[in-house]
Amino acid sequence: MKLFNLVLGSLLVLSGVVHGLVIIDSILATKCIYYMKEFDWGCNSTKQNMRAYKCRCPNRDWIGSVTSCFESQSNDSSVIDHAYKHLRTRCLQKSMMDYPVDVLKAIQKNASNYLEDATDYDYKHTLHHPINVNASSFEYYHRSFNHIYAQVIRSQAYQWGYIFFWTFVLMIGTILHFSKTFIISYTNHNKTKFTNNFINKLRYRLTMPNLLSRSRYVLFKIWPVQIPTTSQSIIITFFTIYMVLASTTGYTIELPNEYQNSHIYQLLDLIGYRTGLCSFALIPPTFFFGIRNNPFIKLTGSSFSTFLTYHKWCARGMVIQGLIHSAVWTNYVIIEGDYNVWAVDAYWRWGIVGTVVSFLTLFQASNIFREVAYEMFLLIHKLFGIIFIISMWYHCNTLGWMGWIYTCIVIWVYDRIVRSLSILWTGGVKPAKITKLNDELVRVVIPKPHRSNDYYFPGCFYCVYFLNFKLRFWQSHPFSVMKSMREGERDCHALVFKTHKGITGKIQNYLVQKAQRSVVVDVLTEGPYGHQIPLRNHHQYVFISGGVGFSPCYSQAVDIIEKNQFNGNQKSIKFIWVVENLEYYNLFEQDMEFLIENGVELHVIVTNTRSRETTPEYATLLDGSSIEKESKDSLVHLNVLNARPKISELVNKTDLSVSTCFVGSGPQDFTNDMRAAVCELIKDAKVRIDFYEESFSM
């Protein structure tokens, strides 16, 4: 499954993108069409609008003159054939007249018997016969459109710069991931060449911390904003710099020019081309970074959340450049006074649809909508994405550059194929036992699939479909998955979640309506998703989790225990669990017993916030008001603080005489504090210290 995912994803996407490189309009046809528009073909117009084409395309003399120009101005049969196809497309698009290429060639052959050189009289009066091309006059058109063609080719080079940029980022990420996974080893009592002052400062300053003290802020008390980590911010900064440079540099204006003979209009025209092409180049990365089955998650070891961050910034760049593209061309046709003429073209109308939908999608993707109603957000987001691709298809199906759209379709189909196969490979329809633990906690037990190790890794999550109409069987929802170590459930996976709005609230209501503590519902599971963190080379592991966020850390701890038992190694594991009240421990005591029985030092810290009328202040573990309880087993410690603990204190109490890995899971503020505390330890560490955040965002 993993190999299929990587190979199929990479090959299909690559094949789609390569096709986008070769599609460009015919420069020969454009030269000839513009040359012939200087003559009066009975249309009283020298413009290139729809009204002019509706008059010229039925005129066999005009068709014969343009096609004879093709034959006389090029010796390359493929270039000439392309020109014929271009003319056929233009007449079909602008005048609804379809001339097959063989018909156009027949018209040219017939016109060759009547060709005449243009005279001064012909320039001033309506033509009634086909004409030859004057070589000296045509040179002006040749030079003008070669210049425009060169500018379009330059814009395509900038366009591909985005692909090369992200390819470079993924390549570096892959190298670093494999280096961390396979090269770094711990020798000489955990002192390694990867813990010198330079490496420590690099990790302390750049690769480990958040850009700001928090990764999430709430503006005006209602609008949540996500802040990238420092390493993500560096990549985004270079991406933004390239986007600005690609949009503002490299323009060469050449006058006089038949296409645009005004400096400002030629510049605006080139900007319109450049931003439109660059916007198109960002569509495939935007789609690829947002799909579930992104093969680069495994290659780079980056989290799903990291790729969602790149997905958002690519989308922002795409939308901004698309807006510039639309604004430039709208301004141009308004000044020309031809807006009503252009507005009837299908590609123009679909371009408006694409611009509007892209902005609506960007606005609707704001965190406030995701957090308030996730399922509704996801449904609308997918719908907007489909409408956007349809609009871009009809916007460019007569202009070229369709390879970028084909690529997006390939990405979408690839993701759906892998999703469907994933459902089959994880066992298809399975019975799930859903148990109501209390008014807000639910536990789901699902049988493991055949060859379960191939479709599970610690810290992963499944997207689960509950096959019940009341539970919205057409929707899937992501849940962290852990092995169940309870008696009688060793062949099962368990999901634990706190109910909110959406599908989790529906599940809770369903249990209430059934008036039963447990019910069995058929489910489909899709996955596993997420990134597998390399917990292999440390001597000590410290897991700090909050509330129901314990399940990713629990699955990691279980995995280390099982591997230690198999390899005969002994690791030190400390599991710190911060909960609202002691009921959490009572509900999951059976799960925790497995950890205790295998030598894990368990600390349960009870904040007891429900008994307080105000938001509690932070308290230290040594606070005099704290009550410490110790069970019969010396490995279990219960601390009742009546306040939230200082995460930095939990981290700082760790013995750092051996290589240590910290793993955090819980609310964002929780993991932010933990990341900051671990960064401080790394600064002066003499042993290898790592931090991993077990979280996902869909």
From TrEMBL:
The keyword Ion transport appears for this protein: yes
Names of required cofactors: FAD
Keywords, comma-separated and alphabetical: Electron transport, FAD, Flavoprotein, Heme, Ion transport, Iron, Membrane, Metal-binding, NADP, Oxidoreductase, Signal, Transmembrane, Transmembrane helix, Transport
Localization of this protein: Membrane
Protein name in UniProt: FAD-binding FR-type domain-containing protein
GO molecular function: ferric-chelate reductase activity
InterPro entries: FAD-bd_8, FAD-bd_FR_type, Fe3_Rdtase_TM_dom, Fe_red_NAD-bd_6, Ferric/Cupric_Reductase, FNR_nucleotide-bd
Signal peptide stretch: 1-20
Gene Ontology cellular component terms for the protein in this record: plasma membrane
Taxonomic lineage: Eukaryota, Fungi, Dikarya, Ascomycota, Saccharomycotina
A single BP term in Gene Ontology: intracellular iron ion homeostasis
Family annotation (PANTHER family): FERRIC/CUPRIC REDUCTASE TRANSMEMBRANE COMPONENT (PTHR32361), FERRIC_CUPRIC REDUCTASE TRANSMEMBRANE COMPONENT 1 (PTHR32361:SF25)
Stored SUPFAM superfamilies: Ferredoxin reductase-like, C-terminal NADP-linked domain (SSF52343)
Membrane topology reported for the UniProt record: Multi-pass membrane protein
